[in-house]
Amino acid sequence: MKREFQQSLLDKGLERLPNVLIAAAECAPISKTGGLADVVGTLPKSLAELGMDARVITPYHRCVKDKYRDRVEHMFSFSVDLGWRSQYVGIERLVLDGVTIYLVDNEYYFGDKIYRGGQAEGEQYAFFTRAVLDAIPNLGFFPDVLHCNDWHTAMLPMLLRTQYGYYVHGRIKTLLTIHNIFYQGKFGFDFFRDLLRVEDRYFTPEFMEINGCAAFLKAGCVFADRLSTVSPSYADELCTPYFGEGLDGILSARRHQLTGILNGIDKKVFNPYSDPLIAKRFDKGHLKGKQTCKESLMFEMGLQAGPRTPLVAMVARMTDQKGFDLVERVLDELLDEQDMCFLLLGSGDKSYEGFMQEAENRHRGRVCAYIGYNEELSHRVYAGADLLLMPSKFEPCGLSQMIAMRYGTLPIVRETGGLRDSVVPYNQYTGEGTGFSFANYNAHEMKATIERALQVYRDEPENWNRLVRNAMAADFGFERSAEGYARLYIDLL
Ligand code: ADP
């Protein structure tokens, strides 16, 4: 155990590190739609290295059943009341890489998509909330800290305090991590009254009410013992009306209990020196392999350009958040004026997907739009691209830019949230930096920054190589993040 943690335990008169149960809607590698899954998957492994017993509880989604059914062990079952329905809960156990994952089984709620959208999604996770709370006493693992993540699990602290306080649960401390405040799980108050037996007195702005609705996330912000988010800058931003999405009031009031911990990436999974998914391995001392990865990627994706033509890539969910409206505005101009190729790996909003497919048709051989989710291809994109574009409107942390840097692909980012905290902008006077950045959410400011990056690639090879080496040397390992969480857990006791 690290001396720092030993000392904290001694100071608090505790004999052991806290047991932690991490509740989340998704957990990599078994179920994943975005960065939340990566954090939930990596955190318990890194905490184990610090000597902490952290386990995960997550739905037994269809995708998990299809792939892991043979490795899952049934523990026990019971039923819960959800409104007028009595619902089956199966608790299954899966041990993966030494981490225990409890899976909440119910075919009706989790037999299909991870997120069903709308009211149906609210019901999925209201069910999950009730199932987790009722399962805890029988898991054979009693958590000192229940670590909730995003709106899907944000009702846990409230129900724990208001409905389970007299049970063993009363001892459990709660931490809510906000990975993305944009999604809050807002429904009419009747929904909460009917499904989760929430009393009417909680339908006020001090508790759950927000713009005439009630929100899972607001309940979490009010009732969790501690709050955290995924980068120091996003913690500051959340307390402002522009970023706070209506929760800036409660978050400002609790600013002293809100900590920003920058996420990290799994350095073993994302390692250009050992990655079996890329065409040729490389490291910062031997960058030749990166050029091979680029040529192989361009061939695979049908991009026809010389080896010295810079390749700009995006790997992202195609939502408004990720800055696709800026890309739409200037992509044609850029391609008309610059020698470059553009590769997109993503899916989401149909209008952005359509735009990218049309751009591919207009610029055959110079633009490739791969619409879909493809984990293996993403490794090849990170390894083969020269630049990764991430012009987000807001970005709680962002993992893509960190993965890109690990593979020597320089990020071009907007200075917001975790992008600001992880990318050091190129300084032409000192040669320092790990990427390029711009401040305002403006298409032509982004375009000028891309042009600047292309110019360094083309005309300043020495500076370019230095930036690539700097980026690859930056340490975004999850160990640092895990220590931040460990400190918070201990602090909570
Ligand atoms: P967010 O969580 O907002 O989607 P992050 O940058 O934090 O954004 O995490 C996104 C993660 O999902 C990264 O690991 C990225 O590589 C991966 N990803 C996003 N879109 C795709 C895709 N279409 N195919 C494969 N991986 C993707």
Tell me briefly what this model is.
Helix content is about 40%, strand content about 20%.
Keywords:
single chain, 493 residues, alpha/beta, Rossmann fold, globular, binds adenosine-5'-diphosphate
Your description of this structure?
The protein has 493 residues and is an alpha/beta fold. It has two domains: 2-264 and 478-492, Rossmann fold (3-Layer(aba) Sandwich), CATH 3.40.50.2000; 288-473, Rossmann fold (3-Layer(aba) Sandwich), CATH 3.40.50. It is 41% helix and 20% strand. The protein contains 20 helices and 18 strands. The protein has helices spanning 3-12, 35-49, 62-68, 107-110, 118-135, 156-163, 189-196, 216-223, 232-238, 241-244, 248-253, 288-300, 324-337, 350-362, 375-384, 400-406, 417-422, 443-459, 461-473, 478-492, and strands at 20-23, 54-59, 73-82, 85-96, 99-105, 145-149, 173-178, 186-187, 209-210, 213-215, 226-229, 258-260, 311-318, 341-348, 367-371, 387-390, 410-414, 436-438. The strands form three sheets. The protein has a nine-stranded mixed beta sheet with strand order 3-4-5-2-1-6-7-11-12, with helices on both faces. A six-stranded parallel beta sheet has the order 15-14-13-16-17-18, sandwiched between helices. α2 crosses α20 (478-492) and α13 (324-337) packs across α18. The model has no long low-confidence stretch (mean pLDDT 95). It binds adenosine-5'-diphosphate (ADP).
